[in-house]
Amino acid sequence: MGPLSPYRILDLTSERGAFCTRLLADLGADVIKIEPREGDPTRRLGPYVDDVPGPERSLRFASLNANKKGVTLDLETPGGRHLFLALLPTADALVEDRDPGDLDRLGLTDAALRQVNPALVHTSITGFGLTGPRRSYQAPDIVALAMGGILGISGDPERPPCTGPESQAFYIAGMHATFGTVLALFARPALGGQGQLVDISVQDCVATEEHQVIRFSLDGHIVRREGNQHGSAAPGKGFRAKDGWVHLYITHGWPRFVEWLGNPDALSGEAWQDGRFRRANVDVLDLFVKPCLEDLTRQEIVRGCQERHLAVVPLNSPSEAAEDPHLKALGLFQDARQMRFVGPPWWFSRTPVGIHRGPPALGQDNEDIPSFGRRRNATGHPE
Q: pTM for the complete prediction?
C-alpha cells in the first residue's frame, strides 16, 4: 500500500516534526512512533474529543499521527536506548525533532547511529538548524513564523502583525522534511547504499516559502502589510455577502465586473479601466463595491461572476469545507478508529494511499517490538 511501502521510518518526533512522519505514513511507509512512557506531549494538547481531555482524546495528536504504529520506551535509560538501537538496523530512516545536542547527550550522535546502520537516513527537524549562532534558541511555531519573514507582512497595516491559524511553520517544515527524507532515500544507491543526514531548519523552510523574503535579498524591496488586499488585483480581497464572505480577484475582467454590478456611475470613468489606477485607489473602489455585494448571497455573487469568467469564490469555513460535495466525491475525508480524518491529497493509480489505521494508542505495539527487529527484504516484508 503506497509508494513508500518498502521503507520503515522510526519516528522520534513530537508536534514540530510529526506532520513529516504523518505524510510518510500516508505514502505507505511503515512508521513506528516512539514515545516516552508518559506519552508524546502532543497527547495533552487540545482540542479533545467531546472537549474531554485524555491521552487518547487529543484531536491534534490524532491528526498528526494517523497511519502510524506506536511503542513506548525511555531513551533516558540504558534499557530504552538498548531497545532503540535494536530497532535501528531495521529502519531506513529516523526522523526526529529533538533540540540540537539532545541526542548527542544520550550518546546517540549521528556518527553513533550510522555505526549501527550505515544506510540510515537521519532527518533532524529543529527551529534554526543544527549549526549556526541560533542553533540553541527555542523555536515555537510563532517564533519561526516571525523569524522567517511571513509574520511581518501579515495583517492590517494599521495593526500589529497577525499570525495564521494552527502551526503553520511546523506544517511547512514537515512538508520540506518529507521531501528531503524521500530524496535522501532515493539517493542511497548512488551513494553505495549509504545514508546521510538531512538537516531541516523550520526558519529556513518558512523563509523559502515566502517569495517576498527572496525578493528583498535580490532588490531590497520591502513588502508592507496590506491586510487581505492582494498586491496587484483590484478588487482583490474578501467582501462580506448577505450570508458570509467571498473573495474577489478582478484583473483583466474589469468591464464584465462593472457590467454585472449594473454599471454604477461612480465606476464608469475611463481611469477605472486601468488596473494600476484601481490598485492605487483601492480604498475608494471598495467604498462602491462593498454595498453592491452585501445584499447578495454568496451563491448569487459566485454564480453571477463566474458566468462572466471572473475569479470570485466563496470563503468557506472549516465546517463548510468538510461538507464540500466535491471533496467528498474525491474521497478526501476517511474514517478510522471511529474518527474522521483528512486523507492524503495524492492520488496514485497503481500504489493507492489512504487512511488505513487511526493514531496509535499509547504503547499499543509494545508487544510487537521483537517482531519489528526482523530485517525486511526489498519488498518491505520481514525475512
A: 0.91
